[in-house]
Design goal:
By secondary structure, the protein is α+β, with helices and mostly antiparallel strands. Among the domains are: 48-95, no CATH class; 110-239, SH3 type barrels, CATH 2.30.30.30. The chain has three helices and 15 strands. Strand 11 and strand 12 (211-215) form a beta hairpin.
Length: 300
């Protein structure tokens, strides 16, 4: 013990002498170097980025399963962890869903046949392989859809609302009030990117002018254009939110890393308050192209 104390004292004396002999400029430089940090702009999850996987899409639409690069919550450029709780999981293939349900504007609707119902590891809902003419495509399967069903697609809006079946795609203006829908367009002609999760659906509440009010799964009301396409029915796999995981290994197979602690929403008197839903929101038109900049080349 005495030898250890004597050794530490000698080290302290030598450090003091070394600091006295060093010039002041080198001491300042050492301090600056010690506090030097590297500023890295770390991206935030959201805006359609999960940081879970990268799908290698091809130039043209295909029903062949696509290759995937798993990110495990890391930024593909810097490799830094952006979204925690992601990692592992079974290797999956991605099935390319054709989000645009296009049909004739006039005349009888286009008929399509459901060939097969499949499970997709990259989404919660089941998917359906549909054939129309010489084309094959994947769509989201509805609650009661089965192989052999005939579904219809049309963009025609009749004077009297149609009587649709599950899986049919019509404009909002052609469907009666109270219809359950999913796979909804936000603006006419754009891909249907609303109401995709398993077991979810929207409800047509009322119509006014050229707008149709739809209640989304969040219970908020939005007014869409009557020409926006929507698929009739509820999304398949309605028992997804009641699925029992059963083990930690099962959770890892799903691609979720363990949590450090159980998060719980604060309840009681000072907990979450039930607030009134906001009023109906009008969906704005898509943004137009930016005006071209005119460059003047004549010197003045």
């Amino acid at each position: 013990m005495n030898n250890l104390t004597r050794l530490m004292a000698n080290c302290a004396i030598q450090t003091q002498r070394h600091s006295l002999l060093m010039p002041a400029t080198s001491t300042i430089a050492a301090i600056q170097l010690r506090t030097k940090t590297k500023i890295v702009e770390k991206p935030k999850p959201g805006n359609g980025k999960q940081f879970r996987r990268i799908v290698h899409f091809k130039d043209e639409y295909t029903v062949e399963p696509l290759e995937i690069t798993h990110l495990a919550g890391r930024d593909p450029v810097t490799g830094r962890v952006v979204a925690k709780g992601i990692g592992g999981g079974l290797k999956q293939k991605y099935h390319w869903i054709k989000w645009v349900r296009d049909g004739p504007v006039e005349g009888p609707p286009q008929e399509e046949k459901v060939i097969e119902i499949l499970d997709d590891g990259c989404r919660t809902a089941k998917i359906a392989l549909v054939g129309v003419g010489d084309e094959l495509k994947y769509i989201l399967a509805t609650e009661n859809m089965k192989a052999g069903d005939i579904i219809k697609t049309s963009r025609f809006i009749p004077r009297i609302p149609v009587r649709p079946n599950e899986g049919d795609a019509y404009p909002l203006g052609a469907l009666p009030v109270g219809t359950r829908i999913h796979n909804l367009e936000k603006n006419p002609g754009y891909p249907c990117h609303l109401i995709h999760a398993a077991g979810t659906y929207g409800t047509i509440l009322r119509k006014f002018d050229d707008k149709v009010v739809v209640q989304l799964p969040s219970k908020r009301e939005y007014a869409f254009d009557k020409t926006c396409m929507a698929t009739v029915g509820r999304v398949s796999n309605i028992e997804h939110n009641k699925e029992h995981i059963g083990s930690a290994q099962r959770m890892r197979l799903l691609g979720n890393r363990p949590r450090s602690g159980l998060w719980q929403r604060k309840d009681g008197r000072f907990g979450r308050k039930i607030k009134k839903l906001p009023p109906m929101t009008l969906i704005p038109p898509p943004p137009g192209k930016a005006p071209e900049v005119i460059k003047l080349t004549i010197p003045l």
